[in-house]
Amino acid sequence: MGRRRQRVDPAAGARAGALPEAIAALSRSLPSGPSPEIFRRAKFDRPEATSALWQLLFRVLSPLPVGNALASLALEAQAHLVKSALCSQGYPRLALAQLPEDGSQGSRELLLALSWLLARGPVPEQMLAQARVPLGDEMTVCQCEALASPGPPAPHMEAEGPVDVRRVQWLMGKLQFRWRQLVSSQQEQCALLSKIHLYTRGCHSDQSLGHLSVTEAEMLRDPEGGQQASGAGVAQNLDPAYPKCLHSSCTPGMGPRTFWNDLWLVCEQPGLLPGDAAPLDPGGASACSLLSPLRALLQTLERENQRLEAVLAWRHTELVFWRWMDTVLGTCAPEVPAAASQPTFLPWVPERGGGELELVVRELQALEEELREAVERRRAAWEAKAGGCGRGPEWSAARRASREAVEKELGALQQCWKQDSGPARPHGPHRLVRREDGAAGERDLRAAEVIRTLRSQEACLEAVLRRLQGQCRQELARLVGALPGLIWIPPPGR
Amino acid sequence: MLPADCSRRLVAELQGALDACAQRQLQLEQSLRVCRRLLQAWEPTGTWALKPPPGPETNEEDPLPACTPSPQDLKELEFLTQALEKAVRVRRGITKAGERDKAPSLKSRSIVTSPGTTASAPPQSRGQAGQAGGHASDTRPTKGLRQTAVPAKGHAERRLLSVGDRTRVGMGARAPRPGAGLRDQQMAPSAAPQAPEAFTLKEKGHLLRLPAAFRKAASQNSSLWAQLGSTQTSDSMDATAAKTQFLQNMQTASGVPQPRLSAAEVEAEAGRLRKACSLLRLRMREELSAAPMDWMQEYRCLLTLEGLQAMVGQCLHRLQELRAAVVVQPPRPCPVEGPPRASPSCRGGAEPAWSPQLLVYSSTQELQTLAALQLRVAMLDQQIHLEKVLMAELLPLVSTAQPQGPPWLALCRAAHSLLCEGGARVLTILRDEPAV
């Protein structure tokens, strides 16, 4: 099965030559992808393929990029988390949940699970995009990353006893202060960023960009990383504090993906990058202790290019793979839906407030109530007014026209939440580019538009906040108003 | 005092918000440091690629630092750097009285005083020389200083430069051409911008040039990403059909013909309906606040409100359906977030764009407004969340507290301040004693 054939149209059928190619491309395109041999063993349910597949599934399903902490989890823990994540995504096969977590069997089942994930979405591309090295100054427009990134709750949550409510007030004030600080630092950083872009205009090889980003400029300024060295000479470890200093080098949007963070990962964890087991330079000492930022950057870029090529190859040849997977599925016995309940899995990341359904129901019911009152009132008023009107033809025509117009409007409104995402709502980080004329291609965002969107979002949120505060005011007034002998003086100024 | 569990939850929530803020602040400060450093004078490391504006390009290849230096070279380097440290000390003594420019001198002072950073790296000493001389335009005093200083030291410097470059260039293929290139630049007429000297981004920023290897890799990278984007759109129909078929086979093989609602899907639906609720409410507000001019408008207003009511009814109906489905067939007892990298509010959309998209701005003002608005939206989000949490915790306390003495009054006051004023203002309570 290892014979290479002429490149024929893979759609022509499952040829013996195309399948290894496809699997090889797939394994090259996934981070620390298992060798094609593993895939073949898994088809025959060989036990030695199991642990590699557990680990691969873990990496694919992990909601956060796999850092040191996650990568060093024991196999059992990884397997458990994989089961939990698949479960929540609605994986149909029950056999997976019943697999032992020590990696002793079940490789065929895992292969099926992997293919299920691959069929549902563009997994290699997503993983690549997630691990991407941001060369520019990135800004995230939508709030997804901000929502997705909170890690496990901070451990310094001392088991406090009862606290005074004044402490809560104090914490609130502290929070307000921190936000103000954040705003002013942010403004300064934008000014500096803008200056750097301005001063380096005209020197980027890519014409559409036109100027250097902070990352690129920093790399030019200090390609060796030697200037941060504490101690004599160049001969020392790339000071781990150095990349951390540039941790989130230039992201006004403060996204979690950062160039220097990745570099640090590269330097400290060579095994995390695909296909990289060898030390980075033949004669060097420990693997990456003497790596300069420029060198590291180049290597990551090159690796990314290799993976990109693998993904493209995979896309061209994947049809064969799916035909093969059908045969694999065929070798499994059909399952019987289990009457017994499934074992419970703990959620991977602590969920934020269960009972979503209940909350929404309550909100909608409250809204329904308000609408009912409003409609009754208006209907009564209308009937009173229009009762005396004639029922002429132009009157009914006008009414029909109104009705149609309203229906169309409301239909458009319904589309706003019916479709999963807003039209062309851009997603993910964008590279900041300064242009005097503000010209932008059709896929690019203009700052002015984003500002408009953000302003409307701001207005929306402010309205919500005011409404909530008004609700509280009413509620509190109701609770305390009944007490005699007290005068409540609201605070001045509004 | 608040009860223990309530306290715990509130403090945890607020502390979490504070920590998130602190983390962002830290990141910002680190990046600020980088940016500030970039805008100050750059220490010449001798390995930049500056575009020599006029004159022939001696070598297209840049002095790309290759692999690591050998241990022997490193030792040599150490000795040399020690010698240079001494030279720096001596020179500093000489040039202290000399003319100093504002930016470079700032830099030198900061280098000198920064803890743990010795002025030991070879480039720095030359940087000192350069700085003492000032900018590139002012090279004559520099040269003069170099000459008046002990010539041996200058010689050592130049030797070091060549060694350093050769070392950095590394073993193997690279000839000392890059080093030679730099040396050429160094001896070049003073008019040309001299690479070894310090400069600021402001003056020479537009002359910088990225290393060739990097340029190649980066352009290949962006073209590959673009290719990826285009193959996505023109995905082969066969492959898509094969995938759907496979998924269906998986479903039927598992014995359950209809895919069960996963927790993720339920959550997504609930999220959609929540969005619907807020949109409907917004629309209702608009209609109620608009003053109808004539009967036609009033009629339309009425129709709209009735339409909204109907839609709310539909949403509630759908929710009841979901609820029922959840009860009958629990959607997997593991309500965890859904597919990786998809958040409830902002799905990937029809086609995630793989190639990098640009965000174009035209002035500092614009960028600052943009960033400020982003922060404001995030802050408002957080405030709304906190408001809901506070409401859930404090309102029940106020309503159920039995002895309505001063502690309860204090609680009311605090609750009002937190809930209604965002903690910014506090109301006053006056006890109105009945006249005796």
TrEMBL record, chain A:
Task: List the residue ranges of the region (Disordered).
Answer: 418-439
Biological process per Gene Ontology, one example term:
positive regulation of smoothened signaling pathway
Q: Which residues form a coiled coil?
A: 357-384
Location of the Tubulin epsilon and delta complex protein domain: 90-229, 294-329
Q: Which key words are in the record? A: Coiled coil
Q: Which InterPro entries match?
A: TEDC1 (IPR043535), TEDC1_dom (IPR027996)
**Pfam families, per database record:** TEDC1
Coiled coil is among the record's keywords: yes
What PANTHER family does this protein map onto?
Answer: TUBULIN EPSILON AND DELTA COMPLEX PROTEIN 1
What name does this protein carry? Tubulin epsilon and delta complex 1
**Species name:** Pongo abelii
